Amino acid sequence: MSEQKKLTTASGSPYYYNEDTQSVGSRGPLLLQDYILHEKMAGFNRERIPERVVHAKGSGAFGTFTLTNDISKYTRAKLFNGVGRKTRVMLRFSTVGGEKGSADSERDPRGFTVKFYTEDGNWDLVGNNTPIFFIKDPKKFGDFIHTQKRDPQTNLKSPTMMWDYWSLNPESLHQVMFLFTNRGTPYGYRHMNGYGSHTFSFINDQHERSWVKFHFKTAQGIKNLTAAEADQMRATDMDYAQRDLFENIEQGNFPRWNLKVQIMTEAEAKNHRYNPFDLTKVWSHKDFPLIDVGVLELNENARNYFAEIEQAAFAPAHVVDGISYSPDKMLQGRLLSYPDAQRYRLGSNYEQIPVNRCPYAVNNYQRDGAMRVDGNGGSQPNYFPNSFDNIVADESYQQPAWESDSAVTGWFNRNAEGENDHFSQPGIFYREVLNAEEKAHLVQNLVGGLSGVNGPKKEDILNRQLCHFFRADVGLGIAVAKGLGIDVETAMPKIHPDTKA
Predict the structure, then answer these.
(1) Which of 200, 230, 380, 460 could cross-link with 105 by S-S, CB 3.0 to 4.6 Å?
(2) Domain assignment of residue 22, given as a range
């Protein structure tokens, strides 16, 4: 038996009375001087940090990324150079719209976010289990998320809010169709793909830039729940995905994903029929085939959920040499909002928390702030340049300049001519990607979701949304209209006067 340890306060002072409060007699009032009572109650009152505004309900684990195919001709990022190279990773899964106590089987996109602990710093690939998203301009994000949360009057989830917003924003159609297939209710986290979703950039050692999309393909095989199975899972095990992930790792059944990339040259991007930086669009695999990169394996559970999963902080702004950004407008907005969200939730020094700390050398002039725990730079200067230390800005980490296609600055209509085709890719998804059973489930799920719309604007909302379905695929529009008991002839494609781009 190991040596017994003394019970102490956080300051290290041993104490005995951990279960009995000091009082005036055995039945008298308590004494203010019992510091342990206040220490325990004050600590308990402060155990909860603000939950994430989105992606509040999550699970995670640690593991290893192993490079199986050297792609150094595209990127000088060290983790992608040298077959066999291993990089430690942390992967967090999540639902998007629900609170921290919500069910794992809700119909919702799933977060799929990887932190790579590389020798050039931490790289956060902050993505989802879908290659696209509902909107393509960050100004719209807060409004969209409000529709996925709770009605300000009833404090209930509102299908009317959701479909009103989606029907007024046809750019959402592609992601809505993904969400209402059974992909919207994956069978836990091990059986779904992950995507960086945004367009990012690679930079090689010749200072050449190419555009890139990241795909994590599950080695366990895709497996989803039907709507009925998801409802049943909510009733029997709200934490199924968390339990499934944790128990499989504990049992040595380590889940794996195969990382692949799509590459587009700058010249190809200029001439592509779609905006390659539009988050509501995908790149054709025929035109830009998947290239194998490596294998990600999760093989280590967290020792303490709060310390290592709840306090994990991610931001797409965190890239490393050889990987950078793109003109993707949603990505540009997230470069600001994600680090800001982490500073609000965890404090200005959130990157000193062990799970977020770079395991390699970190040298900068950031100082002070709440909970600074790394020595705060000691006696070294807190300004740059200076005459006293030997920290230098390494020229080899320079990036090539971006070439803009315009010198005009303005508030451009995100759905202007050339940017307003919201229906071709959803139509291709319905006709060419889904099989007959998947189409049937999609229609059934859409009918179920739209049946929750109510109120005086119900007819307007349903007509607008049906118009989007018809424009993507007439057969889809007819099937959904019939499922809702709406006369098909009156629901055939027409631009409704309330429709907005």
Answers:
(1) 230
(2) 1-47
User: Could you tell me the two tokens for 479?
Assistant: 């099937």
Same domain, 76 and 38: no
Does the pLDDT of residue 178 top 60, yes or no?
yes
In a domain, 357, yes or no: no
Q: Are residues 73 and 43 in the same domain?
A: no
Beta strands in 219-290 (DSSP E): 256-265
CATH number at residue 319: 2.40.180.10
Buried b (16+ CB within 10 A) or exposed e, 189-222: bbbbbbbbbbbbbbbbeeeebbbbbbbbbbebee
Residue 494 and residue 134: Cα distance in Å, rounded? 23
DSSP assignment string, 202-213? EE-TT--EEEEE
Residues 348 and 482 in one domain: no
Name the one residue in this structure whose structure tokens are 């800005």.
393
Most confident of 11-20, 136-145, 180-189, 339-348: 180-189
Burial 363-395 (b: 16+ CB within 10 A, else e): eeeeeeeeeeeeeebeeeeeeeeeeeeeeeeee
**CB-CB neighbours of 21 under 10 Å:** 11
Under a CB-based contact definition with an 8 Å cutoff, are residues 170 and 470 in contact?
A: no
CA distance readout (Å), 415 to 169, 171, 463, 497: 10, 8, 21, 17
Sequence-distant (6+) residues with CB within 8 A of 364 are: none
One-letter identity of residue 228: A
Coil, helix or strand at residue 474: helix
Cα dihedral sign for 166, 145, 330, 265? negative
Active site residues: 55, 128
CA 165 to CA 457: how far, in whole Å?
12
Average pLDDT over the chain, rounded to whole?
92
Contact 137, 125 (CB under 8 A): no
pLDDT at 496: 45
Kindly report, residue by residue over 273-310, the tens digit of the pLDDT. Answer: 999 999 999 999 999 999 999 999 999 999 999 999 99
pTM of full prediction above 0.85 = yes
What's the distance, Cα to Cα, between the start and end of the chain in Å? Answer: 70
**Nearest in space to 110 (alpha carbons), one of 50, 59, 162:** 59
Q: Three-state DSSP class for 147?
A: helix
Peptide bond into 385 cis (omega under 30): yes
Looking at the 3D structure of the chain, how many domains does it have? 3
